[in-house]
Amino acid sequence: MQTAGVARAPRPVGVVADAPRSSPLRDFCRAYASHRAALIGAGFLLLLLALAVLAPVIAPADPRAISRTALAPPSLAYPMGTDDLGRDVLSGVIYGSRVSLAVGLLAAATAGLIGIAVGMVSGYFGGPLDRLLMRLTELFQVLPQFFLALLIIALLGAGLEKIIFVVGILSWPGIARLTRVEFLALREREFVEAARALGCGSRRVILRHILPNAIAPSVVACSLAVGRAILTEANLSFFGLGDPALVSWGQMLNNAQRFLGSAWWMAAFPGLAILLTVLAVNLVGDGLNDALNPKLRQR
Length: 299
Description:
38% of the residues are buried. The chain has helices spanning 24-33, 36-53, 55-58, 89-125, 127-142, 145-156, 160-169, 173-186, 190-197, 202-238, 249-256, 265-292, 294-297. It is mostly helical. It is elongated, with a radius of gyration of 26 Å. The protein is built from 13 helices and no strands.
């Protein structure tokens, strides 16, 4: 006995059934993976992070251990040579990555938290509060940041946590202005008005509806702030204001300036480490900008 039913239309040839749905994360990964330079930068930073974490295992020697082989040029025994006290330069470069990455990541995170908080409050509420916060932002922007950091560290004393705090507290204005611009553009959009009409409070509207759509430029700015923080820490250590208990690339450059003519390797390898690290951070920032910007993804 056959049951009557509606005949199914034949499936068109060449049409794939149940095609995988696109998702924001998949689109981001695909767009970032298409940026070859950004992948190289991310790979270098991951390698540097692994060196920093495994420094006690990977480093050939204690970076502060003094030996009789002073000013030895690069060789099989000492791939990056030794300094004036016989300390292994390669070990110093490996241990120095710990300081640079810690300062870069934590200072950028500090600047990002402050900048995003100031920018979203200023852009969403507007009015006198917006003008007050923007005048404060402009004040921080016109200050000579490096010389102010020199002054603060000189007064407070050297220390890794103090350097992170000072660099972070001086780096937030650009992130705040970017976040404010995005909030100004989004706060009157239809989906925000619909959220308000449904009874959502300001906190929910800011955190659940506007911030996820406004965060992309701020993330890119935070990634670029990592490189600036690394350079600032290197400059402070070069002037003798770094943490004396830790080995850093800037501290190694400070020690190498007396031997530029006779031991070039003392300055070359820490300087190259700073150059490659900042370059890698900027490449990652470019990749994030391309992957998070929908206009660039569609090109």
